[in-house]
From TrEMBL:
Record-listed FAD binding positions: 52, 147-149, 311, 317-320
GO molecular function (one): dihydrolipoyl dehydrogenase (NADH) activity
Protein name (record): Dihydrolipoyl dehydrogenase
EC identifiers of the protein: 1.8.1.4
Catalytic activity: N(6)-[(R)-dihydrolipoyl]-L-lysyl-[protein] + NAD(+) = N(6)-[(R)-lipoyl]-L-lysyl-[protein] + NADH + H(+)
Amino acid sequence: MNETVCSLLVIGAGPGGYVCAIRAGQLGLDTVIVERTRFGGTCLNVGCIPSKALIHAAEEFEKAVHWASGHGSLGISVCAPTLDLARTIAWKDHIVGRLNNGVASLLKRARVKSLHGRARFRDGKTVTVETETGVQLVRAQAIVIATGSEPAPLPDLPFGGPVISSTEALALTRLPGTLAVIGGGYIGLELGTAFAKLGSAVTVVEAESRILPLYDAELTRPVARRLKDIGVTVLTQARARGLSGKGNALVVETAGGEKRIPAEKVLVAVGRRPVTDGWGLEELDLDMAGPFLRIDEQCRTSMRGVYAIGDVTGEPMLAHRAMAQGAMVAEILAGNRRSWDVRAIPAVCFTDPEIVSVGLSPDEARAGGREIKIGLFPFSANGRAMTRLAEDGFVRVVARADNNLVLGTQAVGQGVSELSAAFGLAIEMGARLEDVAATIHAHDAGRGLSGSGPQGPRPRAARLA
Ligand code: FAD
């Protein structure tokens, strides 16, 4: 058995793992990374990047269909478009491939040694890796677990045949005529919306009383309106029970009785579970927080020298959180003091319209009896939004009533994901309303907190509820 000795071993090359390894290599740590599939993890191969590619293609297709319908108000008309989904998927795969190569070259440039194969813990300092050429033993002073997550199955609807996860949905080369999406969270809605725009008849089945139950209701209303607009049926307080006898319909229990939803494909998007089983982790006897690895603020597990980052450590399961944790752990291992502000993690839904939220919602901010101010500006009063046919939505700022400290910022509307960094900056820097008001927002961008004219916003009492 070949043996490698290193300062740091990173298990998993998703956004958490590869950022950690690259930063550690740049900081001079002798680093090894092991990945069982392709560099980039869920995010690059079967998550963020492929879904955003499909969403973009679907938006473009929907626009073309709209202009072809002759109902558009801009005076534009085109011929009816056609879709070649196999080409769309090939285009997406090309982007993924370029980014895979990008990660590989960044790792190489940072002098990180890459091993391809499945890692298995022997003990808290030693891991075996089954590579194509044999088993490698890696001894490391520190180990970072970055094994991520995988789609959670439903017991009554195991994956296989027409029942697919987001991974298979993002590789379909033939458009399903009918698609049932189980789960009205962000993954189900992003993909459901894209397929509806491409031409599938989509039904979303959600167990809670509304879609996107993790976001406050006000933010989700424009999304619900738009789903209706594009013909998506949403069944709330509904539970999928299984496939019908012939397998071409989904049996759903609703308040109004049992329904059969025609479904050429059934996309199960009910959440993701951490990759913690079957590779020796269970024998380390690490402290768990439910199914996830328990970590402290600096991503230490309960075992000395073993760290964990990203989805394997729980919510929010987001690529940028995994990256921030990865970079921080690398700095700590290199002897630098580092921390980051969990409150400043943006959450973005690339639904239509998009939702962005950083910090506290009004209800969260009010918890504990705190007095707050809320500033809200609707896009229906914003000139730029009007010119983009994007009037449904708003920007909202939540601040402490006593000292104007910004506690949270949220928005729903076309393109608002681009506000996430500005929102995050305000929270991270401890901005006050005066700072936001003093920031000059370009008038024609119309994407800041302005929209009322060249003077921009003044969060005066008149605007604050
Ligand atoms: P992962 O990306 O899951 O990577 C873990 C890696 O570890 C994998 O490559 C895996 O093969 C490897 N691995 C596991 N076990 C072993 C082992 N024993 N040996 C070797 N290697 C192993 N997040 C966002 O922030 N924005 C988005 O827009 C977004 N969109 C998404 C859309 C979809 C459809 C999905 C499914 C997810 C989306 N996410 C998004 C979530 C994002 O993909 C994850 O939060 C992110 O990938 C987590 O990173 P990670 O490094 O923790 O794990």
